[in-house]
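WARN retry 2 of 3 for item q-0093 after timeout on previous attempt; input resubmitted unchanged.
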Amino acid sequence: MPNQLQRMLSRHHVMLEYFLQGLSNKDIARKMSITTACVSMCFNSPKMQDEISRRRAEMEKVANVAHGVGIADAQHVLETSAKDAAEKHVQLLECGDLAVEQRSANAILDRVGLSGRVENTQNHNVLIEVDTVNLLNVAMKESLAQTPQLENVS
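OK item q-0093 returned
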């Protein structure tokens, strides 16, 4: 057999599978009871190089598709969790525990990008600027519009 494969035999496909699994030429030779030189010669042939390139491209395509699905699934989980977290903060605004209400208000203000935090004074008054209250109301209305099941909670 010259240094070029004319066609790939079943043993060449087995050799290729081992190679794609990450086995070294030495390990492939040992598993197939052939010499390392024979393995190297097969892998250096243009026919085998083309097949390796084609199979790697297929494997990469499958990995990219699987990775894309994983990202889409993760994105969906995060979006659902974010929605649940926002709903919980809105519910906690009226829980009756002033400290919890204050922390929830702070969290909502932080998430919608409003500067300044809700401050609790000695006499439990909460001081918020009018513009901040208006923006908070808009954010809450948008949150309620996106989550119909909360409309009955308020």
